[in-house]
Each structure stands twice: as C-alpha cells, then as structure tokens.
Amino acid sequence: MEILKERIRKEGKIKEGNVLKVDSFLNHQMDIELFSEIGKEFKRRFEGAEINKILTIEASGIGIACVAAQSFHVPVVFAKKTQTKNIAGDVHTTKVQSYTHGRIYDIIVAKEFLGEGDKVLLIDDFLANGKALEGLIDLVEKSGAELVGAGIVIEKGFQAGGDALRGRGIRLESLAIVESMDEKTGRIVFRGDAANK
Ligand code: 5GP
Description:
By secondary structure, the chain is α/β, with parallel strands linked by helices. The chain has a single domain, classed as Rossmann fold (3-Layer(aba) Sandwich). The protein has helices spanning 2-11, 23-27, 32-45, 60-72, 131-143, 161-167, and strands spanning 13-15, 19-21, 53-57, 76-82, 91-97, 104-110, 119-127, 146-156, 172-181, 188-190. The strands form 2 sheets. It has an 8-stranded mixed sheet with strand order 5-6-4-3-7-8-9-10, sandwiched between helices. It has a two-stranded antiparallel sheet with strand order 1-2. Strand 5 and strand 6 form a beta hairpin. The longest helix has 14 residues, at 32-45. The chain starts with a helix and ends in a 7-residue tail after the last strand. Guanosine-5'-monophosphate is lined by residues 19-21, 27, 60, 99-100, 124-132, 156, 161.
C-alpha cells in the first residue's frame, strides 16, 4: 500500500531493539483518513470472505479495527489485557508476551462476544514475532469460532512472526512489509521495493 509506505518512510523513526515508531499517524496521533484507506484496503484484500466479527487487542489495534469495521459492517471485539490473578469463568483467556515490554500478560475476551458461528478477521497494527496474533488465534480456537485471516498494518518481515503464521496456513495480509531498517541511516526497505532503491 503505497501511501502507507510513504508515510512510514517520511515519519517512521527507528529505535533500539528493532522498534519502528510511527507515533505521528498510527500509534499516538492517529490519521483517520489514512485509517480509512487502510480499512478499505483490508476490505479489498478480504473481498468475498465471509466475516461477521473483527477481533483485535488493546490498545493500538482498536482504532484501526474500528475504522476498518466501517468497511466490513461488522462489530469489533477487543481482547483485554489483564493482570487479575483469578480470571472469572465467563471468558476465554490466554497468555501473550509483549514485544515492546517483554513481560507476559493474560488477555481475555468474554464468551458472550466470541463463539461458535463467528467468522473472525484479526486486525493489529504491527506484526513482529507473532505473539500477539498467536494469542488472538488461541482465543478464536478456544471459543469455537472460525478464523478467516489476519490484517496487519505493518509487518516487520525480518522477524519471525509472519513466516511462522503463514507456515501454519493462516491467511495473513500485511499492508506494508519492512524487509530491513537501519537505525543509523534511517533507511527503511520494504518487500517489493527495487533492490537498489
Ligand atoms: P509480536 O507479538 O508480533 O511480537 O508484536 C506485535 C505487537 O507488539 C503489536 O501489537 C505492537 O503493539 C507491538 N510492536 C511490535 N513491534 C513493534 C514496532 O516495531 N513498533 C511498534 N510501535 N509496536 C510494535
């Protein structure tokens, strides 16, 4: 998605630990017109697929999922992060390791909002090692719902998550795949770019 790549090239900041900061349009300030284009692109890529629910994870996924939902005309459910020791019985739960903080936390979704008969599209902002998506997939599986696929705004293709999930046969649509990024020069190369660009 060219307009997205241009924004990443222009405004993305490469931080220690292979973190790409896009706070000016995605993760802090949010460019809703861009989100709208992102939503339409997800819709185009999943055209014809039967989807009745979008599932994301708090917090960064929510805004994108909500705008995308306007193209799909389906509700959004977000998995909540919780530190509660005793999780009540009416929820599906799993553990996720945070990429940015390293720690492991529980995520939950109420059984009331995810279950048999649901055909689910996952949406998230970033894909790195795949832990967040794996957690969401686990919730879908536990609930008896059907996983249709996952839409990701930015995949870091040099990290393991994307290949591992595709290897499991999961339909993954990433709108921008970063092949490499250099903290020193600030250079970002996307999959599909000419090799010498
Ligand atoms: P994963 O679970 O795939 O390792 O990491 C994905 C999650 O970590 C995303 O939900 C996102 O919030 C966060 N994340 C991973 N890498 C980055 C990054 O380079 N930049 C930002 N802003 N968030 C990231």
